[in-house]
Amino acid sequence: MDDYREPWKLRIAEALNAIMHKAGINADNISPAHIIAEIPPNPEMGDLGFPMFSFAKMLRMGPPQIAQMVCASLAEGAPSTEGASAVGPYVNVRLNRAVTAKAILQEVLGENAQKVDTLAGKKVMVEFSSPNTNKPLHLGHLRNNVLGESISRILTACGAELRKVCIINDRGIHICKSMLAYSEHGNGTTPATEGIKSDRFVGDWYVHFSKNLKQEAEDLAREKGLKKEEAEAQAPSLVRAQEMLCKWEAGDPETTALWKLMNSWAIEGMKETYRRTGISFDQYYFESDTWKLGREEVLKGLERGLFYRQDDGAVAVDLSAENLDKKILLRSDGTSIYITQDFGTAINRYKDFPFDQMIYVVGSEQQYHFKVLFVLLDKLGFPWAKNLYHLSYGMVNLPEGKMKSREGTVVDADDLIDSLRDMAIAEIKEKEREEKVGNPAEVAEKIALGALHYYLLQASPVKDMLFDPKESLSFNGNTGPYLQYMGARISSMLRKNEELGKNEELVMSNEGNIYSLLTSDSEWELIKTLAAYPQAVSEAAANLDPSRLTAYLYELSKCFSRFYHDCPILNAENPDLSAARLALSQAVLQILKDAFYLTCIPFLEVM
Ligand code: ARG
After folding, report:
1. For 407-422, what is the mean pLDDT?
2. What distances in angstroms separate CA 2 from CA 251, 539, 575, 586, one per listed residue?
3. Which residues contact 143 (CB under 8 A, 6 or more apart)?
């Protein structure tokens, strides 16, 4: 985009070069790319601030002295300057509002508006969600899903070629646990006969298994005087689940059929939740397809002496040289574990899509797992191993307490969205807006998703967070619904204007000249904020952190509110000004919609 800051960067670079030559310093020319533009903390100080710190060494002067000399030189060279002043180590400049407002709005409302291309030509694969097929998605997945989807959209907006992938961990001991409970107690019931969402149905059997195992272990511990872990390891139902895993790996037809049936239930249910929340993948990978390749890789590493076989037959690796521990790669009974498949999965992925970067969006409790995985893929000789990155995110808790998975006290994703939606419906009813909004249930669902996604993205990924459903839905404050409401308000104003049938031709016939009427403080702040959007997007991409964008959205909403409060739009003093302010509102709406898409917040025309 034509950056309104560029002309100033150029002029400052020229001034610095002139100072350098005058002082007889022999060094490479300073280019505009070396000049950093910041927004001064207080608009009174100027519209842009340029720090001089980085030139001190080269010019052998203190930054404040440089700032003063630059300002003097700017005043000499350009008597028409809009005003540059030295404030300590900064050169602060005041822009010509009329000229800049016009340039920015033409840019934002123009055809190839606000293009960011910082990642053009880069192939990036993003893995996220990656559920196990023994239970439905929970609140933690909701954070994972929206992080992965949002980051993918942001990277795409910066020009990257993206492949969104998901690994379904559909085999292993945990899967056999729900299978075992169902095969022993299910009596041929199905999700349809019980009227339960199919992934929940499978999850209920996992809970059933866990409760039963706990009981068995307690009994055993009491009878034989065993420790808790020992008792659990010997519990008959666990032993039967382990036998089932061996049968599965041996391809036993009955076990395979049961596995297929229950996995199809689990996966179909999860896909429904993905559809509901607007999450999608370009490709699914299945552990059941990749574990063998993973095992082969481990065995190759064993042959090459990278790994060793323990006395009990398990294959392990010693990573003390890398400051990591010993790690088991294959169990003593020969069965694969979680990490085994990750070798095969990664290899297949690179074959399918030779990425420049591969990002795993996975919870922080798996940091160690990914450290080990990346080190081992490198040891195994895959050159792309250095391009693997674990985007580790923190836990989400509800105010009531921690989410737990095994005991069945986990907060299901569907239940949480349902309850947010019901709260939003109640609010619509209370405000007697049912007729206005048209379809309350549909609108409430979108409000629920806006509340959820915005809240989850607002915290930077590394941090643990508390999800407060009530707060997320609040209509005033830093929330998704508040932003959605702003979008609806602008939309309604533009509709009203259209009904009045004015203004549209005005903008056209004046070819953007009317934009230079937008010079009041609140108009000007809003326009500068619009201009900062591409930078917010590229920063979010560079840091893999959508919270940069939610913060931007909040800033934009504050500036818009101030403008809306200070400046009459449809009733402005004259038609030109009204048209200009409408165009400004239109520009805000456009960026709002764009940023909503990037942060997975549904847009609402009415609410
Ligand atoms: N299914 C795993 C779990 O729920 C997460 C998978 C993460 N991705 C991976 N490639 N290992 O804990």
Report:
1. 85
2. 62, 18, 29, 20
3. 393, 396, 456, 465
